[in-house]
């Protein structure tokens, strides 16, 4: 199609005919649309048209951290796969008792292990405190190194040497008396004589005659008991029954009266009972204190029972009066340092006491 022919604009009529009314039509169409939609947007306030959306906005610090959280391929390969189960032998057992004091470094390592994206130093030993709980040894009352009596020296004084000798002799004599006067063990075999066949025959005959005599005596006793019962059986009259009932009532009233008297006596003796209870409590406390002191004294001399055998203290290393020379060069060798240390460990309860084996 060709271009539209322009009209002549020589007169005013031509000017009025060629004026365009498109903008007026557009205005009317826009106004009708606004009226149908609820009003024009130009007259609406800005608060109803626009709002600030802060839900997706991130701070600068958060953006940097989010950028750092990106895991490289080489690090993702080393991460733990949640779909692969670990070998049972490689899993660490949880300690039974949780330690109360946990260091901050162990907390940091635990947080790091939970976060798969964080790197953990496998050679760091700070986080092993929670996994391995060492047993604390009880402090022993007995010192590690005991100083012996001055009478045990290589050149002691006469008084101290006599005291130690007397103590050693008393210990040895106590062992001897205990072996002699103690209870005898039960013998494994009982001595006896062999019985012949003829003697066995006579023993059986004597037992049979005794049994017959016993049977006869029992039969006679049964017959006499039956006769007594038959003689005692009598018919009870009404008067006898009434007497028995009155006697029962009388005995019941007497028992109730005695019971009331006992209750009244107990009420009167309440102060005495309270004094007796206080005395019993004092005696119990004293007994408990004595037991505690005795236990402490016992622990100073010997350790508690740990195994099958009891602790046997080593004999006192004292020289006889003939062996005292006054010189270390002439001193006779008596005990070694290893035995002394071993006995000390047993006495402090660090090693279970054992018996010296005879096998070599």
From TrEMBL:
Gene Ontology cellular-component terms listed: nucleolus; nucleoplasm
Coiled-coil region(s): 238-299
Q: Where is this region: Disordered?
A: 88-114, 207-231
**GO BP term, example:** ribosomal large subunit assembly
Q: What keyword terms does UniProt attach to this protein?
A: Coiled coil, Nucleus, Ribosome biogenesis
Composition bias of kind Acidic residues appears in 207-224
Q: Extract the Pfam families matched here.
A: Nop53
Predominant location of this chain? nucleus
Keyword Nucleus part of the UniProt annotation:
yes
Where does the record place it? Nucleus, Nucleolus; Nucleus, Nucleoplasm
Recorded GO molecular functions are: 5S rRNA binding
Family membership = Belongs to the NOP53 family.
What is the protein name stated in its UniProt record? Ribosome biogenesis protein NOP53
- Say which species the protein is native to: Quercus rubra
Source lineage: Eukaryota, Viridiplantae, Streptophyta, Embryophyta, Tracheophyta
């Amino acid at each position: 199609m060709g271009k539209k022919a322009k009209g002549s604009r020589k007169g005013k009529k031509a000017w009025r005919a060629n004026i365009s009314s498109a903008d007026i039509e557009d205005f009317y169409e826009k106004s009708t649309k606004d009226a149908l939609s609820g009003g024009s947007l130009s007259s609406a306030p800005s608060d109803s048209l626009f709002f600030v959306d802060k839900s997706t906005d991130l701070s600068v610090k958060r953006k940097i951290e989010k950028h750092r959280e990106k895991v490289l391929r080489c690090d993702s390969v080393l991460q733990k796969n949640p779909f692969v189960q670990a070998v049972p032998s490689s899993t660490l057992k949880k300690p039974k008792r949780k330690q109360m004091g946990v260091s901050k470094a162990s907390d940091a390592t635990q947080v790091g292990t939970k976060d798969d994206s964080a790197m953990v130093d496998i050679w760091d030993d700070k986080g092993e405190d929670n996994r391995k709980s060492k047993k604390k040894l009880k402090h022993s009352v007995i010192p590690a190194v005991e100083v012996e009596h001055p009478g045990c020296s290589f050149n002691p004084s006469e008084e101290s040497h006599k005291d130690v000798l007397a103590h050693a002799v008393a210990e040895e004599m106590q062992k001897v008396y205990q072996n002699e006067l103690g209870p005898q063990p039960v013998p494994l075999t009982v001595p006896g004589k062999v019985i012949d066949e003829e003697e066995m025959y006579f023993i059986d005959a004597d037992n049979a005659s005794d049994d017959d005599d016993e049977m006869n005596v029992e039969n006679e006793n049964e017959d006499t008991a039956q006769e007594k019962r038959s003689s005692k059986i009598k018919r009870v009259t009404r008067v006898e029954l009434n007497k028995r009932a009155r006697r029962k009532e009388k005995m019941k009233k007497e028992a109730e009266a005695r019971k009331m008297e006992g209750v009244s006596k107990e009420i009167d003796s309440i102060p005495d009972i309270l004094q007796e209870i206080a005395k019993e409590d004092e005696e119990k406390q004293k007994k408990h204190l004595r037991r505690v002191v005795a236990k402490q004294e016992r622990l100073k001399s010997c350790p508690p029972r740990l195994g099958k055998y009891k602790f046997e203290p080593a004999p006192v290393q004292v020289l006889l009066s003939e062996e005292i020379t006054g010189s270390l060069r002439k001193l006779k060798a008596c005990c070694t340092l290893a035995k002394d240390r071993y006995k000390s460990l047993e006495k402090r309860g660090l090693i279970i006491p054992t018996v010296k084996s005879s096998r070599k």
